[in-house]
Structure to design on (339 residues):
């Protein structure tokens, strides 16, 4: 029997992260070094700067994760690393570090899809996840609606055709002059607003269509601000933020509920950074409850990018017999089901 310990490494965007997980579900350490303060001045992540900071931080973060877990590399059974999707320069840093450690120690290596990691974050909160289920993964770069008949198998029901939900939040927040990342800032601003004050369009709501489109909503929101400026009218920002946020939440929830009903599942699952939005979670919980369904989502600190989720997904892939060799490379546009 092995130790059941997995070292996870995550560098898909602007967080340098490492974690040690036991048996795929117990978090022994989860270190996340964020670059938010560095990128805020630019209004978003600058890929070259992100990868440079990953290089500086990678091994100190790994060492901290091992130390906090009270283990050494000799205790680790498997190394799991996110190899896509994400910023290719950032991903390469984590992949290179993981391959170097695996080569030097002989520890098995497993490449993990970052989106799959977000799904497995739901196993780290002590809740019982039961497939089949429908999962909505919503983040800055991804909006994917998935049927999961059993863990490790994914049927993609719908995905974004243009801007992801988190990307729309960030772009509109930037125009409002709000700090990066924009989603939490808009949520905070929206708390004092009326979500019915302004009607914004909902894309792709026709029947039997589970894809998403938020570019039209983003354009409508920006046009609203520009027209008000041209007319010299003052925009009540809490109402604007609440209405914009509600347009996104409304579409996400409608499609999630329709998919869950069609596939007759008893659990619906949220994952990804936008799942940290309390207004979104509360609305989905309410709608799921009306239908006799259970809503699951990760602890808030595990909704955003972290290495614990990568370690969890990697451990279960390892148990299923998957291994990666020294040819593992970063894949910026990796999709679920691609290996």
């Amino acid at each position: 029997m092995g130790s059941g310990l997995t070292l996870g490494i995550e560098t898909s965007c602007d967080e340098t992260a490492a974690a040690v997980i036991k048996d795929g579900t117990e978090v022994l350490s989860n270190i996340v070094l964020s670059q938010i303060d560095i990128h805020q001045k630019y209004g978003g992540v600058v890929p070259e700067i992100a990868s440079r900071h990953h290089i500086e931080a990678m091994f100190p973060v790994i060492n901290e994760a091992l130390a906090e877990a009270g283990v050494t590399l000799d205790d680790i059974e498997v190394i799991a690393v996110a190899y896509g999707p994400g910023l290719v320069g950032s991903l390469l840093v984590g992949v290179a570090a993981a391959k170097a450690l695996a080569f030097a120690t002989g520890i098995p290596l497993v490449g993990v899809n970052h989106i799959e990691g977000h799904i497995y974050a739901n196993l780290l909160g002590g809740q019982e996840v039961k497939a089949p289920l429908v999962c909505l993964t919503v983040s800055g770069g991804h909006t994917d609606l998935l049927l999961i008949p059993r863990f490790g198998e994914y049927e993609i029901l719908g995905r974004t055709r243009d801007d992801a939900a988190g990307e729309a939040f960030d772009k509109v927040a930037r125009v409002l002059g709000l700090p990066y990342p924009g989603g939490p800032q808009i949520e905070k601003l929206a708390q004092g607003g009326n979500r019915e004050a302004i009607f914004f369009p909902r894309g792709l709501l026709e029947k039997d269509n589970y894809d998403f489109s938020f570019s039209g909503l983003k354009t409508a929101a920006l046009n609203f601000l520009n027209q008000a400026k041209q007319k010299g009218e003052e925009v009540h920002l809490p109402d604007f933020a609440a209405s914009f946020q509600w347009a996104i939440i409304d579409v996400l929830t409608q499609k999630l509920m329709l998919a869950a009903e069609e596939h007759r599942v008893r659990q619906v699952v949220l994952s990804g950074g936008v799942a940290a939005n309390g207004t979104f979670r509360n609305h989905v919980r309410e709608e799921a409850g009306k239908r006799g369904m259970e809503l699951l989502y990760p602890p808030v600190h595990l909704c955003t990018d972290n290495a614990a989720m990568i370690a969890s997904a990697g451990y279960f892939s390892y148990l299923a017999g998957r291994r990666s060799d020294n040819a593992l490379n970063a894949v910026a546009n990796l999709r679920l089901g691609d290996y």
